[in-house]
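Section 3.1: Structural characterization of target chains.
Under the original work plan, the team committed to producing a structural model for every single-chain target entering the pipeline before any wet-lab resources were allocated. The record below documents one such target. The sequence was received from the expression subgroup and is listed exactly as submitted; it comprises 244 residues.
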Amino acid sequence: MLQDKTVLVTGATSGIGYAVVCDLLDADASVVAVGRNQARLAELSARGGERVRTLSFDLTRFADYRAAFAEVPALDGVVCSAGIADSNPLRFFSLEKYQRLIDINQTAPIALVAELARAGKLHSGASVVLLASILGPKIGRPGAAAYAASKAALTGFAKVAALELAGKLVRVNCLLPGMVDTALAEGQSEVSQEARQMDVQRYPLGKRYAKVDEVAAAIRFLLSSESSFMTGQELVLDGGFCLP
């Protein structure tokens, strides 16, 4: 279903983004992989050959978007996967940490979709997938105000962008995963191993976090024609975590 389709993926050199690129290549799609890890970009290029274009770019360089994405081919899909997580409790709130997180998690995907739309890079029928989270749109967690705000903002943006781009048959949806087994989740130093094990038990379906290939499969569904009448929506992938 994605054969001969071209999809741009941000955050392509780690975690979910890397898994998404690999999954898309297995589905015979072509990929524009955007990331900053040169070694990982080279790995993806070697894996996909002519079906992979790489772009080493810092997504917080907003003034450079027009030049950076000028050579990107017309796209059938966009996956905004780049993101960071950082604890920032209100009592010790750091505006600098907040702004960095918002720039990467919220402003970058909005600015990217806007630039691709302005430049006419989105084919009729293209699908945009924003990687949000259950944290923000569905649940809260102490210390995560900036992260939750950034992910909730994406769901609001998706609704507006879906309406603005519907005339061109471009769809915009959000995927809302719970915790996913990635280096980002493992690297949260403020969470002890004991607390992590307790958190895992809160996921009814298997007492585990999602696997990256499960997230990649859900993203592939949102990119494919099987979700062709779905736009402005939030697809939750949380193993039952948010169920009452």
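The chain is about 40% helix and 20% strand.
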